[in-house]
Amino acid sequence: MNSFIQKLARKKYIDISHVSDTQLARCLNTLDLTALGIGSTLGAGIYVVAGQVARETAGPSVAISFLIAALASILAGLCYAEFGARVPRTGSAYVYSYVTVGELMAFVIGWNLILEYVIGTASVARAWSSYFDSLIDNKIQNFFKENVPMSISGLSPYPDFFALGITLLLTVILAVGVKESSRFNNLFTGVNLLVVTYIVICGAFKADPHNWNIKPSEVKSANVTVGDGGFIPFGFSGMISGAATCFYAFVGFDAIATTGEEVQNPQKAIPISIVISLLACFLAYFGISTVITLMCPYYLLDVNAPLPAVFERVGWDVAKYIIAVGAICGLSTSLLSGMFPLPRILYAIASDGLIFRFLSKVNERLKTPFIATVLSGIFAGVMAMLFDLSELVDMMSIGTLLAYTLVAVCVLLLRYKVMCIGGLHDTADGDYNKLSQTDPEENEEYNQVTITKPLINRSGYSSHQNIFQRIFCAKRQKEPTAETENVVTVIVWIFCLVVVISSVFLLFGETSLFNGEWWAVVTALVLGVSIIFMFVSIFCQPQNQTKLSFKVPWLPLLPMISIFVNIFLMLRLSYQTWIRFGIWMFIGFLIYFTYGIHHSSEAKPRAIPFELEQETSQAYEEEERLKEN
Fold it and tell me: GO molecular-function annotation terms (predicted)?
């Protein structure tokens, strides 16, 4: 049993001295990554989501909803940015969790990322087809409904061959080369941003501030819901509920993190592009939501196509054609950016042996994971053609939020770990011998390393100190020790459990809490004090001082808030979504326990360099002597 548990918890070995070695082509720069992040995040949703949330949930305060959602997304983005600087490898959250938490959790994350990108690609392909079809009076779907109807529950009413064709076309573009697909993405993302700019600037000329201060008595129609009127017509809870919906509009920036082995300078390019793309998307969403609620009363917005309807209302019919161009470009970049990470995730997991290794083969001429790209494109295309994806889209959210949560957890664990470095250098049976990075100013590419002794506790930190001293009086140490590392590890996992309990309480006990029932108030106080206690105890532990090109600021506050937000949003999903998630995980575990656990690259014995082994041994002997004294 002990051996079995060790297999599940074994960590990925990354030698920082060979971190730049890859079979893929390093041809992407910061601009390419930023366009990829914007393209994957700023899809057709910008032409729909703002109007939908304003009409049904938040009213004019939808702009604040987007601000709250952007702040929550940036928390996750900062955690990804730090890991992009630490571990510039292909695989995103999968590889980040593999080097920090262990193999089983990494497989869970990787398997769910596959599901996320497959469903995301298929749903965008379906949306692309539907939007284009709407521009030609639905001739495509009418033809196939008449000639090839499918009356089967769970399947689409008709086979969408157009969605299949679009997916296969972009699969060919992706398979030909990463630089070629990047140019395609850059062009369409640029057009999309120009259209968004046009909407914001032109819409500002038709803005009416009165639309943010409408009174219910002014509304003559009885068929519309106006709430209490004003800027926040549906109350604070409506604005927060709108923020939860808007949060999913920012999902997609993690595609940047899958390109670690195809970027020219990943330690700098990945953090910069994540932050810039999220800021650009926030400005676009904020601008659109502000303009449309100023141009038109929120209760009159068209849920399905708010932007064309708004401009048609003010007499600018030509705008709908420009908006159509932007929507087509946005859908195209969203589809390409959704397809781009999928073969990279398959490549990363297959390279580690957790799924079938033939998926990790790289075409020597094209320098792309050709087999993984073709198979993933065919799979996503067939799903887009046959399935009704509206009921499956929520499954994307579980994979995304789980990945966000674990990346934030990994940032916390690594920042308080002994001898944590820019990249990790774990042994097969432990993670105590890490390599130390040279100064980034002396080595900008981070490809040279120096081997140093493990950090030794020279502060007289006694094992006889009481629990209070260990938790709250460790700050006087400049570097973490094995004991402070263990304290943080235990507290972080307890914090995650408390957050789950708190989220369940907020979801089911909100009414009792607001009604002042004593048990609800006491529970809220206990949970709140527990979270504050854990925050203070982590804050009091010494952080690792390793130099990185980017670090998450305000630790441990920002990662802890990110964990709370992501877990809360996960638990808001329906039980049907969790049942489908369980079925998908059952299939994944069958693959892992019958194939992956036996073929894992980390199952192979790895020799420790003699010099490092000697220095490690001497350092621990010295630490033992210090403890005895």
Answer: L-arginine transmembrane transporter activity; L-lysine transmembrane transporter activity; L-ornithine transmembrane transporter activity
* Distance spanning both ends of the chain, measured CA to CA: 37
Low-confidence ranges of the chain (pLDDT < 50): 420-464, 607-615
* Nearest to 357, CA basis, from 592, 599, 590, 96: 599
pLDDT digits (tens, 9 = 90+) for 440-465: 333 333 333 333 333 333 343 444 45
List CB contacts of 209: < 8 A, sequence separation 6 or more. 294
pTM for the full predicted model: 0.81
User: Rounded to an integer, what distance in angstroms lies between the CA atom of residue 426 and that of residue 9?
Assistant: 13
pLDDT score of 451:
31
What tokens appear for 26 in the block? Answer: 């390093």
User: Which residues, in sequence order, are CB contacts of 243 under 8 Å at separation 6+?
Assistant: 58, 64, 65, 66, 68, 69, 72
Q: At what angle do helices 62-86 and 393-415 cross, to 10 degrees?
A: 50
Contacts of 397 (CB under 8 A, 6+ apart): 248, 251, 569, 570, 573, 577
Amino acid at 628: E
Q: Tell whether 472 is covered by a domain.
A: yes
Quote the longest CA-to-CA distance of the chain. 87
Number of domains in the chain: 1
List the one residue out of 157, 166, 91, 78 whose CA is nearest residue 126: 166
Sign of CA dihedral 263, 267, 268, 274: positive
> How many of the other CB atoms lie within 10 Å of CB of 602?
18
The answer to the question of residue 608 being in a domain is yes
Question: Does residue 145 form part of some domain?
Answer: no
Nearest to 569 by CA among 124, 68, 36, 47: 68
Q: What is the pLDDT of residues 75-88, one digit of tens each?
A: 999 998 888 888 77
How far apart are the C-alpha atoms of 614 and 609, rounded to whole Å?
9
Q: Classify residue 624: in a domain, yes or no.
A: yes
Among candidates 166, 182, 541, 179, which has minimal Cα distance to 381?
A: 166
> If you average pLDDT over every residue of the chain, what do you get?
80
Q: What angle do CA 39, 382, 168 make, to 5 degrees?
A: 50
- Asked if 45 and 306 touch (Cβ cutoff 8 Å), the reply is no
Name the amino acid, one letter, at 609. Answer: P
- Annotate 220-268 with DSSP letters as a single string: --SSS--TT-SSSTTHHHHHHHHHHHHHGGGTTGGGGGGGTTSBSSHHH
Q: How far is CA 33 from CA 312, 480, 526, in A?
A: 36, 35, 44
The boundaries of the domain holding residue 616 are 415-575+603-628
